[in-house]
């Protein structure tokens, strides 16, 4: 067990509790761009939860936004800040809907399997992390299999799930998020003025009512078991440049503003007339960067 308040790099063992606020903040500040809402919610929720030795329920975060806005990236940062090896740690479990649960006809089998996996892994480490990617491609009803684990129970069949973290990633609700961001942009307001309350209620409702969200009429939402709906805003030109700059530095190249501009200019933006937001976020800038760095 770590001494109170200390933080000594990521762990190769399962902690009882953990203080990671400064390290997580540093990572989010230096690597995640254009996401003031997500940054704040994630930092407070995750570090608050981990430092609590006796949480009443597991932490459940549902991250929403278009591809390339940083949802997977943030999950990776969280995992790396807690466990050595990050996503490859024995205590971090990533489920990709189309990979792990492809066939609608096998849903009963998937439900059993998922419950067994979560039970087995939480028994081994109470602070296990479960990440569900592509929630929007998850078959209707499947995610409800994990409901008993997310509730305010001290134990379920002799196992306590209260220290686990569940993170759900999805594109569902991204249109709603974009609408709000675009409204702010059109009325000349700073995107940093967007508040969680401008997004969160509409987001949970639209996800609940969307057949392709993985959460359609889900008891997880009906029973308020999701702690935070975290919006990831669409990225602007200047954010792409930040992603590219950091990537160049990470690869050991000298920052070259000319290359940064050329890569950013290759990306496509929407809406058609105003061209404000990148339609792939920062997702493909790195492969485009390869092309210029190889020259
Ligand atoms: C999964 O579904 C396929 C096709 O529906 C079926 O043939 C197979 O037996 C199922 N697997 C199990 C283990 O139930
Ligand atoms: C833990 O989860 C993984 C899937 O990520 C699964 O393959 C493994 O069997 C689980 N472990 C236990 C002990 O259930």
UniProtKB/TrEMBL annotation:
It is a peripheral membrane protein. Residues 235-292 form the Torsin-1A C-terminal domain. It is found in: Cell projection, Growth cone; Cytoplasmic vesicle membrane; Endoplasmic reticulum lumen; Nucleus membrane. It catalyses: ATP + H2O = ADP + phosphate + H(+). One of its GO terms (biological process) is nuclear membrane organization. The keyword Ribonucleoprotein does not apply. ATP binds at residues 65-72. GO terms for molecular function: ATP binding; ATP hydrolysis activity; kinesin binding. It comes from the Eukaryota. Its main location: other. InterPro entries: ClpA/B, P-loop_NTPase, TOR1A_C, Torsin, Torsin_1/2. Keywords: ATP-binding, Cell projection, Cytoplasmic vesicle, Endoplasmic reticulum, Glycoprotein, Hydrolase, Membrane, Nucleotide-binding, Nucleus, Signal, Synapse. GO terms for cellular component: cytoplasmic vesicle membrane; endoplasmic reticulum lumen; growth cone; nuclear membrane; synapse. PANTHER family: TORSIN (PTHR10760), TORSIN-1A (PTHR10760:SF15). Belongs to the ClpA/ClpB family. Torsin subfamily. Homohexamer. Interacts with TOR1B; the interaction may be specific of neural tissues. Interacts (ATP-bound) with TOR1AIP1 and TOR1AIP2; the interactions induce ATPase activity. Interacts with KLHL14; preferentially when ATP-free. Interacts with KLC1 (via TPR repeats); the interaction associates TOR1A with the kinesin oligomeric complex. Interacts with COPS4; the interaction associates TOR1A with the CSN complex. Interacts with SNAPIN; the interaction is direct and associates SNAPIN with the CSN complex. Interacts with STON2. This is Torsin-1A. It comes from Dipodomys ordii. The lineage of its organism: Eukaryota, Metazoa, Chordata, Craniata, Vertebrata. The gene is Tor1a.
